[in-house]
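so i finally got all the pieces together for this one. its two components total, 762 residues if u count the protein bits. some of the lines might not be protein, just check the labels. i wanna see the whole assembly predicted at once instead of chain by chain like last time, that was a mess tbh
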Amino acid sequence: MEKDTRSVGIVETKFFKIYEQIELESGITFGPITVAYETYGKLNSAKDNAILLLHALTGDAHAAGYHSEEDKKPGWWDDMVGPGKAFDTNKYFVIASNMLGGCSGTTGPCSINPDTGKPYGLSFPVITIGDTVKVQKRLVEHLGVKKLIAAGGSMGGMQALEWAIEHPDMVSACIVIASTGRLTAQGIAFNAVGRNAILSDPYFNNGNYYLEPKQPEQGLAIARMVGHITYLCEDAMHKKFGRRFQEKDKPNFDFNIDFEVESYLEHQGRTFVGRFDANSYLYITKAVDYFDAAGKYGSLEKAFSRTNAKFLIMSFTSDWLFPTEQSKELVKALTKSGKDVSFCEIESPCGHDAFLLEFDTQTKIIKSFLAKERGLHEQPL
Amino acid sequence: MEKDTRSVGIVETKFFKIYEQIELESGITFGPITVAYETYGKLNSAKDNAILLLHALTGDAHAAGYHSEEDKKPGWWDDMVGPGKAFDTNKYFVIASNMLGGCSGTTGPCSINPDTGKPYGLSFPVITIGDTVKVQKRLVEHLGVKKLIAAGGSMGGMQALEWAIEHPDMVSACIVIASTGRLTAQGIAFNAVGRNAILSDPYFNNGNYYLEPKQPEQGLAIARMVGHITYLCEDAMHKKFGRRFQEKDKPNFDFNIDFEVESYLEHQGRTFVGRFDANSYLYITKAVDYFDAAGKYGSLEKAFSRTNAKFLIMSFTSDWLFPTEQSKELVKALTKSGKDVSFCEIESPCGHDAFLLEFDTQTKIIKSFLAKERGLHEQPL
């Protein structure tokens, strides 16, 4: 790790506590809330060089660097965040936080409800992308940030859009990768299947499984398997696994794992349950389903007419979960609202996962976008 | 029903019993086997006017007509089978049978094992598309058929291909709709998720649930939900459901059914468990995964070089489960083997399900193909 001069090095997850109650979109007031976050780089004196990185479905506050000298696995967007990287920590103050409802330090269904001394479980309120942005706003204000660039892939892109629409005076630029203004019916359907698998797991116990000997692992694993199929494209799967059998050259003629692709899915499901909470999966997929950038404004165009940000929209050719057409819808609405928008469809065989894999092209595009954005604002960093 | 002069009318499911043991592809010998089947129309004196209809994943022997005067729901391909229809019962002797491993009359995992007096459950042998064709061959021979036209959609198309390759002297024509020579890795992955949901259902009980008070309904329902997403295309889902909420205009803010698309999936899952067996779902999806038309011959071209049939291959523009490219692979290999093949990609918004919905275009194409086929054979029917 130390050999990598472009790493942010060893970082620490910090915690910020919001003591008062926050009004959620559902109408419920909720609090206190602890927010897990990390920062890389330094805030400038004008307090306007912040980049807020927004994670996807199962991400966390640990976007870059390592947690210890021994730590072998860097943060989820480490290739994109560091000195000289796309999100250049020599120039920017980069912030990443775990979303409300998550299970990696920020208050979520697995957190202890101070009123009962027990985990919230399903008594945790249903939250939205708007709610998590509200919480993030408290965090960045606490950090002294006056202006920021909001950036994220997939669900992170939804949060970036929400930031630009709801807090136009704080957001100077908005980077939306492999994302959409709203999920399709098919996207909702895939999430619904995942939630069904969790809700019907015999150990789900109406969400009160934290203190039980068994957890709804199988349901969560199935949800993850369905998800993984949608993150890869058929071409990538074909290249990666084809129709090869696992371990030998012929079928098992039983219901154990037969094909390599089954082994891959099983592995993805199994490892996921070790790092993610089934209740959080319910809450976060629901927030994704509910998100609609047009929302209360009636149309994307009207929503975007509120914004003051410069936009960068990126999509990937092989992403069939959040396909290019959905990015183009955003671009079209932004253009109609007279906003400054750059759009790039990146050629990639990696499917939706490309935003976590295709670093070179993303880096070039983001660097060039950010350089222009700095030029526009004419502020030395 | 009686008003429909193009209906085959009231039909009866019959049963044919194979007493001796059959050698399966796995090497296991298995028997006895009962085959549920229906026939419509009459076999001619040359015994060469048969059409064998091959059902898809969850189909059965009841392809056309009604089972009683009160019966409101006709067979699964009723719009295609009858006097003057695509499969014209005035001209052809149409046969449909439930596949081996199924749960609609043909011996499958829910059948009683005569050796134990109990349902087979998972002691039923894993079967292949080849095995079920072997069983069908016994049936058509029993019916006196010398030559036949094999026709089916989806998994039915796989069986039609298997018929043409393995029994070249019996198959004069082969109609393959919305199908493929082999499933993609993504197709296997979707099936694997469905099987996982069944296998991990708390009431699955290692397949021995038939005599228990509870059945693995939730697992089977989830498998069906995943399947249904792949049967529709995103455009069709969008048109059908969009992002509309169920019953009211705003979100529930809970984990009950929220969006119309969730309600649709839940309904599909719930009604499916009433008519299908979870073990059969395991066996049949496995047979689909294993199918590879190139199989033992090393290449599609070599496999097809054995055939004597005239082929009609049809695909649908919006089918992303068995997309047009897969049909084109078949066409290419058939052409290279010097075989007579007609191909048509039908414009349809109905996704994979189109073969069960788009009757007009299919009828025109099939009628024209069959008329030519009859011409070629120069046999009055």
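Chain A has two domains: 14-183+292-377, 188-284.
Residues 14-183+292-377 of chain A form a domain with the Rossmann fold fold (CATH 3.40.50.1820).
anyway lmk what u think
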